Amino acid sequence: MPTISNRGEIMPASPIRKLVPLANEAKKRGVKVYHLNIGQPDLPTPEIGLEAARRIDRDILEYSPSEGIRSFREKLVGYYAKFNIHVDADDIIITTGGSEAVLFSFMACLDPGDEIIVPEPAYANYMAFAISAGAKIKTIPSSIEEGFALPSVEKFEELITERTRGILICNPNNPTGYLYTQKEMNQIRDLVKKYDLFLFSDEVYREFCYTGAPYISAFHLDGIENNVVLIDSVSKRYSECGIRIGALITKNKELKNNVMKFCQARLSPPLIGQLIAEASLDAPDDYLLSVYNEYVERRKFLIDGLNRIPGCYSPIPMGAFYTMAKLPVDDADKFCAWCLSEFEYEGQTVFMAPGSGFYTTPGLGVNEVRVAYVLKKEDLAQALVVLAKALEAYPGRTI
To answer: Whole-structure pTM over 0.90, yes or no?
Structure first.
């Protein structure tokens, strides 16, 4: 039998999806599963995007340009300008979801053995994409007790070596919901300048900031314009996860040319997805406002509910639609699996993402879970009841 690759062996399983088989088995048994594990909004896609899909009338569904349809990229220029992000259409490359933007940016910027520094907990697929590129992610822990604030500059500098090529942030953050302050973003800028690093900035949740503080983009930071690689996606803002449209944005012409080689190798991003995404840019303001207000209400409802459960703690997330919560359990991986395979309350159970999958430092996140508040409040209310009952019954409860 042929030997499979070492790369495949060390590729981490998704903490978001690895328990799906257990959830499917629970559903086969007739158990209702509340999906708190994945950032799949239940809110409707903008009608203008859906209508664009219905109106597609083409004789040929052709390849699009490798960098994406020109009219879409030109329209994105106006979208970004609303956030004081000033780019040209030629700075924008359309990708197959934000995931491909991360992967291509790593492939274009990093050689095997190069290192990237990432505050953890972090979106688990970052690690997977680094492995795909042969690069190494060096994580710097933030703590739930401090609300996942950015670690000190000194902690970053302890990790910098001659192989360090970049810093990766997600702002607003997945999985913590943390929103980086101006001071923290300036600290990152100064590190990027001092060591001439790339700054990979995943900003797909920019619409979902819940504090009075302004959203700070990596493109708002002076003096590092050619160091910034911005990652974006329409998946969350328009509830269009399935059309797989993202973007990689950079003013660095040499980097863009490098990225384009990978884009040409995969031929083109999804044609139909781009048509829908381009139309969705004209979604009325009241669509985005209603989505925003809904998440504000869900956030308060969920965090209040979690912190009322004995032994649970979650800081208040300031952006995105996730929170990391500490549970009174011996092992969150075991607890999440147990909820799906052995527990039910009145024919219901909960599906959460174990926290350990968002860390690479051994032992961290062992009693944490990521919870996505992407369900309506009635379902969140039931999920909280089920979670409380599960914690009461779990054999590995710690208090």
So the answer is: yes
